[in-house]
Amino acid sequence: MKNFARGQRGSVTSAAVLKEVSPRVELPGVAVWFSKAFPLGALGKHATPRQPNAIPGISVGIASTLEREVIWAVAILQSNAQKLRDYIELKGRIEEYLARGDFAEAQRILDNLTQNVCWSHGCLALKLFLISKIEGLESQKNWLVENILGRTNSPAAFFGYWLGVRQEPETDPQDFETNIVQSVPNLFTVNEDNAFLRHILMARAASPDEEANLVQQLQAQSIIDMYEGLVSQLIDCSARHRESKRHYLNHLVPLMEDIGDWRQKGVEYLLSGNIDSETLDGASGWSASRFIDRLRHASTDSSSGDPAAYAEALGASIDMTRADRENRAILGSFAYSDVWSDMCVFLRATYDLKSARTSDEIISLNRIRFLSDKCPSPYVTGYVQQAQIPSAYHKALERSTFEHDYFYLARAVCSDNYQDAKSLLRKIEQDQIQEDPELLRLEIVLALENQDWPHLTKRLTAATSDNSEILYWVPYSDISTAISDDIVEENSGTPDLAILLSRLAPLMGEQVRSQLVFAAELHLNNLGWDRPSEIPEATLSSDPVLQDFVLSCFAPETMALSLTYLDAEEMQEERLIHLALLANASEALRDRCEDESEQIIRSQEISKAMSTVAESKIDCDEDGLRIWAKEKLSSKYERFRSFVDAGILPASAEASRELLVAVREGDLGSKTFEIPSNEATSILREIINELTRAYSLDPYFGLNSYLSLRIRHGTVAGQLRRGCAEERLLTTADSDGDRYDINQHWFDILRENSPVGVAAAVAERLGDFSKSLDVLISNFSDNNLQILTDDKPHGLVATGFDDRILLGFFSDVISLKSMDDFLDAFSDLFWSNLEISLSKARAFIENDFRGAVMKLFDNLEAGVQTDANASSLPPISDAIVRARTMTNQSIDEVSQWFSASKSSESSVFSIPDLGRISLEIAKRLNPDFKPIVEFSGEDSWPIYYGLVTFTDVFGVLFDNVARHSGVQEPNVLISTDTSDSEVIKIQFASDCSDVDRALAAAQKANSKFLDGNYSSDLTAEGGTGLAKLSKIMRGSNSPQPFYVSVDERKKSFNVHLEFTYVTLGSG
Prior knowledge:
Blueprint: H1 2-7, H2 12-21, H3 27-37, H4 66-78, H5 81-100, H6 103-116, H7 121-134, H8 137-149, H9 155-166, H10 173-183, H11 194-202, H12 211-218, H13 223-240, H14 245-259, H15 263-272, H16 277-280, H17 288-296, H18 308-315, H19 324-335, H20 342-353, H21 359-371, H22 378-381, H23 391-399, H24 401-414, H25 418-431, H26 437-449, H27 453-463, H28 476-482, H29 485-490, H30 496-508, H31 510-527, H32 537-541, H33 544-553, H34 556-559, H35 568-585, H36 587-615, H37 622-645, H38 655-665, H39 679-697, H40 703-712, H41 715-726, H42 744-750, H43 756-784, H44 803-813, H45 819-868, H46 876-897, E1 908-909, H47 911-925, E2 932-937, E3 943-944, H48 947-964, E4 971-977, E5 983-991, H49 995-1011, H50 1025-1033, E6 1042-1047, E7 1052-1060
Parallel strand pairs: 2-4
Antiparallel strand pairs: 1-3, 4-5, 5-7, 6-7
Helix pairs in contact: 3-4, 4-12, 4-13, 4-14, 5-6, 6-7, 7-8, 7-9, 8-9, 12-13, 13-14, 13-21, 17-18, 18-19, 19-20, 20-21, 23-24, 24-25, 25-26, 26-27, 27-30, 30-31, 30-33, 35-36, 36-47, 37-39, 37-45, 38-44, 41-43, 41-46, 42-43, 43-45, 45-46, 47-48, 48-50
């Protein structure tokens, strides 16, 4: 076999063969021979890297049994025992300085370690952490480029980059994990590489199935990474009492004892239960677990003996003054500074306890803390279930009430004695001055496992009454999922479950709201009422819990799911009534209730305004058209009048009456109504044709301009895509526009519970669906949402007149003496005729177009069924059903846009009101658009007759931000200046990421406005928002009604508008 290895030049394959065939007793000697015979082979050349860029990557090989892999690895480590002794000694000194926060001294010793022992992944991570702490993040990146990224494309570059990301200051490990999983999507699938990647990048222990493979791969790493990898597996196996621990106990622990690694003693204590008195009495050094206990009992003053940095990180584990996310970042980032130090192992276990979902996890993590603390507290010692505790220790516990309670709490958890654990937790809670996140999570996990819903709901409702942030401390997702209809019914006698659901709803969404409606209405019915408004005010006044129940559980977003109310209006009126009751019943709630009532009333006004805007989509600027007509057509009209006065009529004076009689009698077909052919008729036809063309196609004032601005310019696409966008069904085209990306969002969700092949097929199908939907909408916009002309033969908006209609109009205009009267009559004719045409447009949209869209959904659902080989594939099938329903609603709304009824603008709004209305419309059309909008200046100035004008203006501006800002959540500031008696000045400032592009766009917009050179852009679709805005502002009498600027320092794109009051129609 040795000759075989020589022939293979010490390859990984030859090592695998030797491990498999060598007698077990000879295996250590074979391993040592192999490492010395092939020092530059695949398993030996990286044993002691001298430079950080020489740190190895993943090795390829086949694992033998776990025991044989452990024996082989330990034998190699034993041959490097002296270097490991040096490492253990220097590692302890680094940890000491790191815990104090003396990062410069820690770095000095680390440099000594890497010079005299070797580099490792752990050393690299610590180096990056220390540089960022001492010199800053930029220096860390520069060092990484100079020492690794600029020198090699080897795996060291990959690990260097990601370890650098992990070691950035105050990085929450969860954020890092999310980031890397998005970049390495298969990281949590089971294959030969992933256990190693998770181990190096996130310090995760391997699962039983991956354990042998991880140990095999560690043999190709530095001796430090190999050693710490084996120790981490020993600790994990021991804490979980896994069978595989015996292999490490038999082979690794003797080496640990030989090189002076004290952790072997902790493992011995944990597994044997024979803990020495020095460890138990806490006299042998500083203790992290005892420090946490001090904090729990308000002994927050740090003593001079507390290691500052370590103490700060531990403090974040139970801190109440900062947000949970901030505490997680402080604790988690320090926990990965020196991954294999006892301090960081303890901190990571403490961090992971914040996410523990079972009592088994809590027990294991506390055992890991026991193994990482040289002087463990009674609480973590209690988790050593078999511990043989001397009588002196018990007597010491009796003298300290809280230590006694903690110890026996841990014992109760380990022995699955829920009632004792619950009693002790209640006692500990009463003794503490504030909630303890770790113990509260333990209490809720135990209650959840034991189905103790009365205790769980009462405890959490009380805990979250003043601080909803506490929900982040508990497994709120597991709680939400576990609440069934049966549990709701069993606990309907009190309001606790409903109140808890109301606090979970903002975190969990619709899944919880449906249960909330059920729970709230069931409890209300049990009290004898059907609606909150039926509760007597006196009853409310005397019951704060009932007040909380009504206020929290009958919020509008929850009531909207109830079947009790016929429509939104009835639901809102009910909420206003019981808010008024609550305001009278509780002085403490009055301001909150009045604020919400004001918001509801405002939302009602906004809803009415949005309906008005929707009704005004089919419109044109008749004031502008009248000015044009009087200038261009007055002379023709005078000629026409002269012929009429001379008795040359375009139709008989009785023609209109005769036509109406024929229509009434249903005898229209048997009569002939012909328009005479004479000079008056010819001139009148010319006037009507020119008016019709202008009303229809004028680029400034005509109907087509409004179709472009209010419908085709992104509005219809946003409206029709909205349902699919909210369900995340849509993807975007690639750079060439030929192919749509697969749907990564649904791929990630589906692969959790479905075969990867099914998830991939559905994700690709959603990309094809996105393309088909976009093509259908684009064709609909380009071909159908048009004025019917020779160039647009499929246009839905027909503005021409039937001769019989013209005959009646020709008869009527004979009596009209003035141009103004004539234009009024033509306006009535145009809009009444258009309404007949638009009824056909609505029919096309509601039938033909809806059918085409629904066919896409039919094909998508059928395709998903085929991919899944099942009638449905939750949750994507449910999402498709919801998207179909919402799209049907959107088609109904688009159909209603095609109405010729003229909108009323009698309501009065302020600029902020109008901005909010426009924002709501913009967000409905683009659910992913989430700007942060602020208003400044005069916010109560009343705007009369300005609803449509301002929603057009702000609609264009918000659309421009959504398309071009390049910022995910852009800031928008709308400033109003009403100091001028004749002009309202508005500045719309928004973030922009590309200043050069913004400057070019501003220059182009200003130039076109000054030159008046934007009319050609008004008929173009897409990217013409500022041109259309220029068109709106053309009616302002201000010397400078419109200009654009860019603040390069603030990276702000600023649109300046000046409205004269005439512009707004106020006279």
